[in-house]
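Q: My collaborator sent me two sequences in one message, no labels, and asked for predicted structures for both. Can we handle them in order? The first one she listed is below.
A: Yes, handling them in the order given. First sequence, followed by its C-alpha cells:
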Amino acid sequence: MLPYAPSSVAVARQYLSSDLQEWGVCETAIDDAVLVVSELLSNALRHAHPLPSGQIKVAWQCTDGHVEVAVSDGGSATEPRAGRAALSSLGGRGLGIVEYLAENWGVRHDGDITTVWALVTILAPLGDDRTSLPEPALRECI
C-alpha cells in the first residue's frame, strides 16, 4: 500500500525496477514495465478515489516470461479506457501508452475496489544462459 499521493509514483517505479533488476530482467523490459506502472498509478491518482484506507495498492507478479502490474483504487464514476488524445492535448495518453507496451491489459472490479492491470513481456538479457526467469513471485509496494 502506498499513500494516495503523486510522490507514490516514484516509489512504485523504484521498487518495481529494483525487483526486476534483481530477477535478471533485461533493461528494455524493465523500462516498459516501469512506464506502465507509472501510467496506471498516475491515472488512478488523477481519476479515481483512494481505497477505504486512504491509500492505493500497487502490486506486481512475475510468471511465465511476463510481469503483471496492477493498481487498485476506490474506483471512479467512469470505466478506465484507452482514448485517442488530440495532438494538442496535455494529457489523455496514459492507457494508450499502456495498450502499446503491454501484451494485454484490463480492469477487474471487486465491490468498491477497481484494479487496472497490465501484462508486460519480460525476457532475460541476451547472452544469458538461463532458459527461464525467476520462480513466480508476487510483490506489493509497502
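Q: And the one she listed second?
A: Here it is, processed independently of the first:
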Amino acid sequence: MQLSAPIHRLKHNAKRMARQKPIALHEALDHIAVEEGFQSWSHLAAASAGETPATAMMSNLKPGDLVLLGARPGQGKTRVGLELACMAAILGRQGYFFTLDYHERDIADLLASLNVDRAAGQFPITVDTSDDVSADYVISRLQDTTSPALIVVDYLQLLDQKRVNSSLPEQIAALRKFVKTSAAICVVISQIDRMFDLSGKDLPDVSDVRLPNPLDLSVFDKTCFLHNGAISINTP
C-alpha cells in the first residue's frame, strides 16, 4: 500500500497532532496509520519496513495454528517470537509471551530494541516470566480471556524440566487442543542441535530440533526455522 508521505513525515505529523489535540503520541500514530489505510501504527511500520522473519511468519498464521520456531543461539528466535507477540494486534489479537529463559529486565531490553514502549501502551502484550510456565499454566492464564490470543512460549526444551509438570508430548498435545478449540495461535520456540553447525545446510529442519525427550514433531501445524536472517516456513 502506497503511503501518502514518507514515514518520517508521517511521524512528524503524528507528533504535531499529539501536541495540538492533546493526545498521547501512540494514539496520534495509530490515528495517522488508520488514515493511511492500516489497522495501527505497528501494522504500517511492519508493512513499510518490508518483509522480515516475523512479518513472513505473521502472514502465514491462521486461527488454530500450533507452530514450532527453531534456530541456533544468537539467530534471533526469541526476538522474532517477541516481535510476533507485539504484532498480534495486526490480526486483531492479544499478544502473550511466556518465557522460562528470560527475566523481565531482559524482555524490557528486547522490547526497547524493537522500539516498543509498553508503558505507553503501544502494543497490547502480556509478558510472563514465571518459573511455573508450562502448558497447563499457559492454558489456565488464558482460559477466561475474551479476545483471541497469539501466544509465544519460550522455549520447548524447558517445558518439562520440572518433575511436577506433564511430559513434553502431553503438554504439546494440551496446547494443540487448546488452540484448536479457542482459535488461538501458539508459537513454541525451540533450540536446534549444535550439530547443525557442521551440517553444511543453509537452514535447520525438523531433524535438527534438539529433543532431550521424545516428541513427534508432526503435531505442529507449521515449522519455521531461522538462520543468518533467512527463514523457512513449512507445513508437515
